Amino acid sequence: MDEDAPEKVGYRRSAGSARGEARRRELLERVTDEVGANGLVDFSLRRAARAAGTTHKVLLYYFDGPEDLLTQAVLQLRERRIDRSLAAADLADSTLAGRVRAMWPVLVGDESWVLDQAIGLAMYDSARYAELARTASVRYLPALISICPPDWPDERKHQVSEFILAVLRGFLIEWRTSGDGPGIESGFAALSRALDHEEART
Question: Where do transmembrane segments lie in this chain (predicted)?
């Protein structure tokens, strides 16, 4: 049978097939690229199908409708952002403050506006898109924990990472709503002092 035959709805039906899963990932990558470039407004299966070079019926074979496909694409964008952030942190100096500071240009990079739209969508229509907001902390928190000094106890890593995440979210909102670069830089100076103080008491 043709792997693209849209006879059933839901990609989970093809999860047992390596070929089917590879096809699903290929389609998702193409849709994710399109969402990253054009945002979430007016997203539809037909728009996604054009980007993926297929039909909306084929997408319905691999995904559980437009909300599922959009959620999967946003999660994919978020994973890309986290991976790039950690790569930037790895190239920074050895201090926690330096690693956090190095992540910032990635967090406000080209696709950041789309991820901001996703959080807004989750707040506006939580019944349909709550997962977009829930998964943000679930994914970003472990990334921040991973850049904390390795000799810190787990509880301390978690507490400091929660603090960093909350502050960065505030900076992101400020960046998106006011574009106050100097104000954010002042905030980063204060955040760096706090993190340097925390690290110095090790």
Answer: none
